[in-house]
Amino acid sequence: MDRFVVISGCSGGGKSTLLEELRRRGHQVVEEPGRRIVIEELDRGGSALPWADAPAFARRATEMSIADRSSAASTADLVFFDRGLIDAAAALQHLTGEDTLAALSKSHRYNRHVFLTPPWPEIYVADRERKHDLSAAIAEYDRLCVVYPSLGYQVHILPKVPVEERADFVLSTLNGGNRHSV
After folding, report:
1. Is the pLDDT of residue 182 over 50?
2. Residue 31 burial by Cβ neighbours in a 10 Å radius (0-12, 13-18, 19+)
3. How many domains does the chain have?
4. In this structure, is residue 153 part of a structural domain?
5. At CB < 8 A and 24+ separation, what contacts does 174-180 make?
6. Is there a domain that residue 38 lies in?
């Protein structure tokens, strides 16, 4: 859907901060499935965690992403997704070899403009929900830099600038005012 916009990229690259700024500006935002799953699993003592059972985690993220898209379908305005189905399906395919990405990406499209946060070591922080190190985050980012264009998306690497400027960059690009992409 043209109004479903993905903000993805490197873990710890400022996605959540950007999405909070977009929310502050009045846009609907869907929180990252991975973070929500980790919080739920930790709270209930579950094992569908990226460091305990990564395939189960990726399957749950895929299911949650599909549900998120369905829930957002009734909204007529732009909806910004903190990651999304492509990220989850790409992770699942990477972990298991299951060819889920192509089929899901055809039936569940997003806006052709996808925004990726690049690795930003100066702001990267591991925490209770993000236990992987920066090298693992960069490996995931590198996979996403290949996956999104291979599915026909136009990838825009977000500049390492203050959050207000990042939000302006996203909104300007969506309005046709910025053609910087990879």
Report:
1. no
2. middle
3. 1
4. yes
5. 174/5, 174/78, 174/111, 174/113, 180/156
6. yes
Decide: pTM greater than 0.85.
Answer: yes
Q: Give the separation between CA 78 and CA 132, rounded to whole angstroms.
A: 31
CB 131 within 8 A of CB 26: no
Q: How many CA atoms, within 13 angstroms, populate the side-chain half-sphere of residue 124?
A: 17
Tracing tokens 């996203």 back to the chain, one arrives at 170
Structure confidence by residue, pLDDT tens digits, 112-165: 999 999 987 566 566 555 556 677 778 889 999 999 999 999 999 999 999 999
- Residue 164: inside a domain, yes or no? yes
User: Please, which residues bridge with residue 116 across strands?
Assistant: 8, 157
| The residue count for the chain | 182
Q: For the domain that residue 120 is a member of, what is the CATH number?
A: 3.40.50.300
φ/ψ of residue 141, rounded to 5: -55, -45
Q: Three-state SS for 179?
A: coil
Between CA 130 and CA 132 the distance in angstroms is 6
In percent, how much of the chain has pLDDT > 70?
A: 88
Question: Domain of 160?
Answer: 4-174
3-state secondary structure of 114: strand
10 Å Cβ neighbour count for 60? 22
- The predicted model gives 99-114 an average pLDDT of 85
Q: What is the pLDDT of residues 41-59, one digit of tens each?
A: 988 989 888 888 889 999 9
